[in-house]
């Protein structure tokens, strides 16, 4: 092979209009005769060597209003800017700032291309202030949102007196009327009031007097009312947010209109009333606690608000409601909303070249917005775009500070890890409610899917109805005409009993269908796995258990027919990522009716309501909590339809104490929690200590499945290496091995008996030699395998999910199953245990869900016998680490199991 280089030269065409060279904001003082205001230059993105740029021509837009045309003129200077052309803007009269503070002048610029491009840029001329008016008494109200009651000493706003001049601060001095208030400070030169740290909630009345040296006015009174309200962390993390354009932060809170010289309700207050009205709650339960200017010219402002019934409403509900009522909010509050739910990852390749995750950065330093008669001190909150896939970024340590446990679970932090103690019924590793039920006319809203450059979404569902929408994430309202359209969406539904996936990254819709052997509306649980990256998409049904496989031992390549269980396709170019910023909807669609052609979709979900249950919804190994949707209708937590089956027999009804009942619409059975066994999971398993050169060899009384393997066990160790469990063929050529290497958990497997096709998956971000009990689980279907530790979420999960090469693992049920390492006999009585698991314990070993015995406490179960066992001890005692340790006073030695701490 050789490499050749192809050079493609892209020719420039004149497709960009010229704009101002920079942001001009000249200041023209009030009461001065006509004069030159500013010289303006232009720039153009096109190639000037192809004559697609200068010389430029400038003129005042003929459509400009009469006041502008009577006040300013724009003249062309052809020789200016070295012959590139320049505009000279001059005033035609004198101005009074108290009448109008700034003027917007539209200037038309034309380039030299063929054909020429023309664009309009707007020049802002600011009228400068002269102190030509006397001041009069004034009053002001300041609202302070004190985040967690912890605000440091902070500026909260300036003393206000009524004065038509607004640039005359240097002429003024400010004083307390009586003694200084102990909780507040005043800067006498600027009039800025500061609130001291530790100020409690309440109303504070402050009185000041002001002096103006130019007009020799003294003792003009000014009153300030300060309202302080604590805002809890819960309100901030559960806040909704909107981005508005054309309005500054001051405009949003202002109550004084200087043009009409009158008071009116602020936009912030109107917005608050509208939100309360839409949520049908008291206005006092809504807080608009953060108003922050994002960009000055043209202005862009971010607003955050929270609302509560008994707990705080979820962001997905607040943002969803604003989206659905966006137009009426814009009209009644008089704002232009450009984004609902501030999402810095929404526009592809704007912040990041690939994966992008929003993080909420809450600062202890407040953010002050100061308008004349009012001021708002809010919480400083920034949405930061991190260019990583958040769900797979394990660089930050886990701790209980971030409240990782859902639904009232108690977070317990040990030296090495954390775990959640969960209330009954919440079975996720972080107390998530794992299932949700729908009746065919409902839906539930959850937070949208995060943006990752390669994603894996999987869940299980059960139904007896042939049609129903399982999941949708995408637009819920028609697009706004003047904004960048984001048309991305994903939809998964059952159509006539077969799964159908629709995926659109913004440049066309991909449809995938799988025609399974039997339809999936059979009242049994089914699993769907959806994978997508920048181009390729695939959908796998039930781990491809129904695939037709032919494998011969003569070395011919295996055959794998996946047409009944897997579909693959490519995304239409050129968009590469799924960017969604609307509620993730399960079980049905709650959207404003719109015409799908607006979004240029080639396919649409049928969108019929789903009748059945969903469970174990994972996106990139993060398990969704289905307990409390942001908004829902005719949907409930859990799955009453299968719970009813569980209640029918005594064993399954009683297995909740130490197990979970796994029911379909047809039957139910008990799955015991790790460490428990027996028909109703009432029997506790007994662990075994493995000493040096220890192992157990098994003979199975059942035929292991060739296509799939499930291994589950508990282990506890402080050693960095050791083999926990293995299954293999007679000659150890095909195998699956669960082991610890360098303190990390690995599953290594090879399905080709003639030459190695070994795969190895491991959990790189978790050390397992911490002396704690852990649960390891391996699930293999063909060449696809998953490895899970302690519930298998986030850093405790890894997978390789492709069906390539050989798919069968032939296990020798007499010679191929070992725990604790594989023994090789070196003589009649001597043996060597390879990869010996020692100074550790094992408990509750299950193969394909069947309990295997652990000697010496138990030598056999109905599923298998321990035919050889060496160097084992019943139970899992510590090795008395405190025996020879003397801790200095007042410390005492604590046994941490094979380790100690003073």
Automatic annotation (TrEMBL):
Residues 433-639, 685-876 form the Laminin G domain. This is Cadherin. InterPro entries: Cadherin-like_dom, Cadherin-like_sf, Cadherin_CS, ConA-like_dom_sf, EGF, EGF-like_Ca-bd_dom, Laminin_G, Neurexin-related_CASP. Keywords: Calcium, Disulfide bond, EGF-like domain, Membrane, Repeat. Residues 396-432, 642-682 form the EGF-like domain. SMART domains: CA, EGF, EGF_CA, LamG. It comes from the Eukaryota. SUPFAM superfamilies: Cadherin-like, Concanavalin A-like lectins/glucanases. The lineage of its organism: Eukaryota, Metazoa, Ecdysozoa, Arthropoda, Hexapoda. It comes from Oryctes borbonicus. GO terms for molecular function: calcium ion binding. One of its GO terms (cellular component) is plasma membrane. Disulfide bonds join 422-431, 672-681. Pfam families: Cadherin, EGF, Ig_Shg, Laminin_G_2. Residues 1-20, 20-139 form the Cadherin domain. The keyword Repeat applies. CDD domains: Cadherin_repeat, EGF_CA, LamG.
């Amino acid at each position: 092979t050789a490499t050749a280089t192809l050079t493609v030269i892209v020719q420039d065409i004149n497709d960009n209009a010229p704009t101002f060279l920079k942001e001009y904001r000249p200041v023209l003082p009030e009461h001065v005769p006509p004069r030159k205001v500013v010289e303006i230059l232009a720039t153009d993105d096109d190639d000037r060597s192809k004559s697609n740029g200068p010389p430029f021509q400038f003129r005042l837009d003929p459509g400009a209003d009469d006041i502008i045309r009577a006040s300013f003129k724009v003249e062309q200077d052809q020789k200016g800017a070295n012959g590139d052309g320049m505009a000279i803007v001059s005033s035609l009269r004198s101005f009074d700032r108290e009448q109008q503070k700034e003027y917007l002048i539209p200037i038309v610029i034309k380039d030299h291309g063929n054909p020429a491009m023309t664009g309009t840029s707007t020049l802002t001329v600011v009228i400068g202030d002269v102190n030509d008016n006397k001041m009069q008494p004034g009053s002001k109200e300041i609202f302070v949102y004190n985040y967690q009651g912890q605000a440091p000493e902070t500026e909260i706003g300036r003393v206000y007196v009524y004065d038509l001049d607004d640039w005359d601060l240097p002429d003024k001095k400010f004083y307390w009327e009586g003694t200084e208030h102990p909780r507040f400070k005043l800067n006498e030169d600027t009039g800025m009031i500061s609130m001291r740290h530790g100020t409690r909630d309440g109303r504070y009345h402050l009185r000041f007097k002001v002096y103006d040296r130019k007009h020799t006015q003294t003792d003009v009174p000014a009153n300030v009312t300060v309202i302080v309200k604590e805002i809890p962390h819960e309100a901030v993390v559960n806040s909704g947010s909107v981005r508005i354009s054309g309005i500054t932060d001051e405009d949003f809170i202002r109550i004084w209109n200087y043009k009409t010289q009158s008071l009116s309700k602020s936009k912030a207050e109107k917005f608050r009333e509208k939100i309360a009205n839409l949520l049908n709650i008291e206005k006092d339960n809504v807080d608009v606690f953060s108003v922050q200017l994002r960009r000055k010219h043209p202005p862009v402002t971010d607003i955050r608000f929270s609302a509560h019934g008994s707990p705080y409403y979820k962001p997905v509900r607040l943002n969803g409601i604003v989206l659905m009522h966006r137009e009426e909010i814009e009209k009644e509050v008089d704002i232009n909303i450009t984004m609902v739910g501030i999402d810095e990852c929404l526009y592809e390749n704007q912040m990041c070249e690939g994966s992008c995750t929003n993080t909420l950065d809450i600062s202890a330093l407040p953010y002050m917005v100061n308008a004349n008669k009012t001021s708002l001190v809010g919480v400083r909150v920034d949405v930061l775009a991190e260019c990583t896939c958040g769900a797979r970024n394990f660089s930050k340590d886990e701790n209980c500070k971030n409240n990782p446990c859902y639904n009232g679970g108690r977070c317990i932090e040990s030296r090495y890890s954390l775990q959640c103690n969960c209330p009954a019924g919440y079975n996720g590793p972080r107390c998530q409610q794992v299932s949700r039920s729908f009746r065919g006319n409902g839906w539930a809203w959850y937070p949208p899917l995060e943006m990752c450059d390669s994603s894996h979404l999987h869940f299980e569902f059960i139904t007896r109805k042939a049609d129903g929408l399982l999941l949708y994430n995408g637009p819920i309202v028609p697009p706004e005409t003047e904004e960048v359209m984001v048309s991305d969406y994903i939809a998964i539904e059952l159509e006539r009993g077969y799964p159908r996936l629709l995926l659109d990254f913004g440049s066309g819709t991909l449809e995938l269908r799988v025609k399974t052997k039997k339809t999936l509306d059979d009242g049994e649980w089914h699993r769907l796995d959806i994978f997508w990256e920048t181009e390729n998409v695939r959908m796998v049904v039930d781990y491809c258990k129904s695939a037709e496989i032919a494998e011969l031992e003569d070395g011919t390549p295996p055959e794998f027919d996946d047409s009944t269980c897997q579909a693959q396709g490519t995304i239409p170019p050129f968009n590469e990522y799924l960017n969604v910023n609307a509620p993730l909807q399960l079980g049905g669609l709650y959207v404003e009716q719109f015409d799908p052609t607006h979004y240029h979709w080639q396919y649409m979900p049928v969108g019929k309501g789903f009748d059945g249950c969903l469970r174990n919804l994972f996106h990139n190994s993060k398990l969704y909590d289905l307990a409390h949707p942001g908004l829902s209708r005719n949907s409930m937590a859990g799955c009453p339809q299968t719970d009813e089956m569980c209640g029918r027999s005594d064993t399954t009804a009683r297995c909740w104490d130490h197990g979970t009942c796994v029911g379909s619409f047809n039957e139910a059975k008990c799955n015991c929690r790790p460490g428990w066994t027996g028909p109703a999971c009432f029997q506790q398993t007994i662990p075994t200590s493995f000493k040096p050169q220890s192992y157990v060899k098994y003979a199975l009384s059942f035929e292991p499945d060739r296509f799939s393997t499930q291994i589950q066990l508990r282990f506890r160790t402080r050693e960095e290496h050791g083999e926990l469990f293995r299954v293999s063929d007679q000659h150890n050529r095909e195998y699956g091995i669960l082991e610890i290497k360098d303190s990390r958990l690995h599953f290594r497997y090879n399905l080709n008996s003639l030459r190695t096709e070994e795969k190895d998956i491991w959990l790189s971000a978790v050390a397992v030699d911490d002396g704690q009990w852990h649960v390891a689980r391996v699930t293999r279907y063909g060449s696809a395998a998953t490895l899970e530790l302690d519930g298998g979420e986030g850093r405790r999960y890894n997978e390789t999910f492709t069906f390539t090469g050989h798919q069968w693992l032939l296990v020798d049920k007499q010679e191929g199953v070992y725990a604790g390492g594989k023994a090789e006999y070196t003589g009649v009585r001597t043996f060597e245990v390879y990869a010996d698991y020692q100074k550790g314990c094992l408990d509750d070993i299950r193969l394909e869900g069947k309990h295997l015995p652990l000697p010496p406490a138990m030598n056999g179960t109905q599923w298998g016998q321990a035919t050889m066992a060496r160097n084992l001890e019943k139970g899992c005692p510590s090795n008395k680490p405190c025996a020879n340790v003397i801790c200095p006073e007042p410390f005492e030695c604590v046994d941490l199991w094979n380790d100690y701490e003073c």
